[in-house]
From TrEMBL:
<dbReference type="InterPro" id="IPR015422">
    <property type="entry name" value="PyrdxlP-dep_Trfase_small"/>
</dbReference>
<comment type="similarity">
    <text>Belongs to the trans-sulfuration enzymes family.</text>
</comment>
<dbReference type="InterPro" id="IPR015421">
    <property type="entry name" value="PyrdxlP-dep_Trfase_major"/>
</dbReference>
<dbReference type="InterPro" id="IPR054542">
    <property type="entry name" value="Cys_met_metab_PP"/>
</dbReference>
<comment type="pathway">
    <text>Amino-acid biosynthesis; L-methionine biosynthesis via de novo pathway; L-homocysteine from L-cystathionine: step 1/1.</text>
</comment>
<dbReference type="Pfam" id="PF01053">
    <property type="entry name" value="Cys_Met_Meta_PP"/>
</dbReference>
<dbReference type="InterPro" id="IPR015424">
    <property type="entry name" value="PyrdxlP-dep_Trfase"/>
</dbReference>
<dbReference type="InterPro" id="IPR006233">
    <property type="entry name" value="Cys_b_lyase_bac"/>
</dbReference>
<keyword id="KW-0456">Lyase</keyword>
<protein>
    <submittedName>
        <fullName>Cystathionine beta-lyase</fullName>
    </submittedName>
</protein>
<dbReference type="InterPro" id="IPR000277">
    <property type="entry name" value="Cys/Met-Metab_PyrdxlP-dep_enz"/>
</dbReference>
<keyword id="KW-0663">Pyridoxal phosphate</keyword>
Length: 387
């Protein structure tokens, strides 16, 4: 069967399996190796193609994981790298050279901005930030040396939805690559490559790993960029361990069922929060009144469990009373695991300020019972009132 006719749920279960080569085991075992012994001098010299050459150039474990992600992404090639942030920097550096210019969405994940303003600038690459809602208007920002447009949709912490097909059309007209951090929707809910993205990025640390116990990133390329991506990864000596790829592939098997639950739980929490007097508004593209809902409905097939809450103005003491004492919402960075999390959102915007009435919280709805989660938030609001 052509993989394109399969649904993500089916691909997630079967993709990347190598049972016949591993005594029938369903899962590819963990290979830990540096040296791979070659049977002949010709094989050692790579004159005779050997399937595996050297540890960091790939093992059956990394190959299983990468092939599985490539199938879900509809990509020509997926590479696995040590972190999500490394997937972002690797994808950017695959495309640019000194003297180039890139367009970066203003609502990007903070460390991506830090990379552009620091290391990338030092390498002679100039960054211009653009409004996430710019759409086809991005054309006005193109320079003769603009080599890539970087998207992240919905935006980090503020959840603006970008018009990716409109941006991709303009970028391709100018010969620029389109890169997207697609960690929020995952390839299950947004098929980035089909919407014009050339290099699709996942912080596999989040939903693909799914269990808060692995750090990993993936970059998935279409035919045009596959070879360049692979060459750059090998030139840099980048490698994700077999143990981490094994865990991430195990996570991938259940990604669609977990996501459906995260989506449902997130929406229930968001709708409950919307009715609270302490809440000014909710930042969640799947809510009908959200400014990004129209494009979300057009392009996405689902939502994850991550969304924002803008509170009405309150004192620091009241915010502290709310946050301290939550039982089911942990305070910590990252998201995409099975557990609920909450953090105050600290965002930097340089193109257009994000107008928030009060503190902005980012909630990750985990897989717990929503009644228990709501009771926990309600107790938090009681503490807020009493403070
Ligand atoms: C967490 C995150 C990353 C970085 O992933 P790490 O594995 O923590 O480096 C990148 N993009 C987004 C949107 C993220 O939330």
């Amino acid at each position: 069967m052509n993989s394109r006719s399969k649904k993500p749920e089916t691909i997630a279960v079967g993709a990347g399996r190598m049972s016949a080569e591993h005594f029938g085991t369903v899962n590819t075992p963990v290979y830990r190796t540096s040296t791979i012994l070659h049977p002949t001098l010709a094989s050692l010299r790579n004159e005779e193609a050997a399937r595996y050459q050297y540890g960091c150039l790939g093992t059956p474990t990394t190959e299983s994981f990468e092939n599985a992600v490539a199938e879900i992404e509809g990509a020509a090639r997926t590479v696995s790298v040590p972190t999500g942030l490394n997937a972002i920097t690797t994808a950017i550096l695959t495309v640019v050279a000194a003297g180039d210019h890139i367009l970066m969405v203003d609502s990007v994940y903070g460390p991506t901005r830090r990379f552009c303003n620091g290391a990338l600038k030092r390498m002679g690459v100039e960054t211009t930030y653009y409004d996430p809602l710019i759409g086809a208007g991005i054309e006005a920002l193109f320079k003769p040396n603009t080599k890539l447009v970087f998207c992240e949709s919905p935006g980090s912490l503020t959840f603006e939805v970008q018009d990716i097909p409109a941006i991709a059309e303009v970028a391709h007209k100018h010969g620029a690559a389109v890169l997207m951090d697609n960690t929020w929707a995952t390839p299950v809910y947004f098929n980035a490559l089909k919407h014009g993205v050339d290099l699709s990025i996942q912080a596999a640390t989040k939903y693909i790993g799914g269990h808060s116990d692995v750090m990993l990133g993936t970059v998935s390329a279409n035919e045009t960029y596959a070879k360049r991506l692979e060459t750059f990864v090998h030139d840099m000596g980048l490698y994700a361990s077999g143990d981490d790829c094994f865990l991430a592939l195990r996570g991938l098997r259940t990604l669609p069922v977990r996501l459906a639950r995260h989506w449902g739980n997130g929406l229930k929490l968001a709708r409950w929060l919307m009715e609270r007097p302490e809440v000014s508004r909710i930042l969640h593209p799947a809510i009908e009144t959200d400014p990004g809902n129209k494009i979300w409905r057009r392009d996405f097939t689902g939502a994850c469990g991550l969304f924002g809450v803008v509170l009405k103005p309150i004192s620091e003491a009241k915010l502290t009373a709310f946050m301290n004492g939550l039982k089911h919402f942990g305070m910590g960075y990252s998201w995409g695991g099975f557990e609920s999390l909450i953090i105050p959102a600290n965002y930097v915007r340089t193109v257009k300020t994000f107008q928030a009435e009060g503190p902005v919280l980012r909630i990750h709805a985990g897989l717990e019972d929503t009644g228990d989660l709501i009771a926990d938030l309600e107790a938090g609001f009681d503490r807020m009132e009493a403070a």
